[in-house]
Write a structure and sequence with these properties.
Elements: H1 3-6, H2 12-19, H3 23-31, H4 36-45, H5 49-57
Helix pairs in contact: 2-3, 4-5
Length: about 70
């Protein structure tokens, strides 16, 4: 997995995919190691239920609290 994605130091690709409902790219990024929990709040804020469901299916922790980004 891509270290930058796993450690969420370069979240623009996932944020862009969430904003544009690009589930195919979201799946790609999750498979590359992006942390579903880290992006769950953004998906909820965008009111995109399909993306929220995909992140939950990918194992997003609903109790996750991002440090210093939200």
């Amino acid at each position: 997995p891509d270290t930058m994605l796993r450690e969420n130091r370069h979240p623009r690709a996932m944020s862009f995919a969430i904003m544009h409902n690009d589930v195919k790219k979201i799946d790609y990024l999750l498979n590359a190691g992006a942390d579903a929990a880290y992006y769950l709040g953004r998906a909820i804020s965008s009111r995109n239920l399909a993306v929220v469901a995909r992140l939950l299916d990918a194992g997003a922790d609903t109790n996750f609290k991002a440090q210093g980004h939200w």
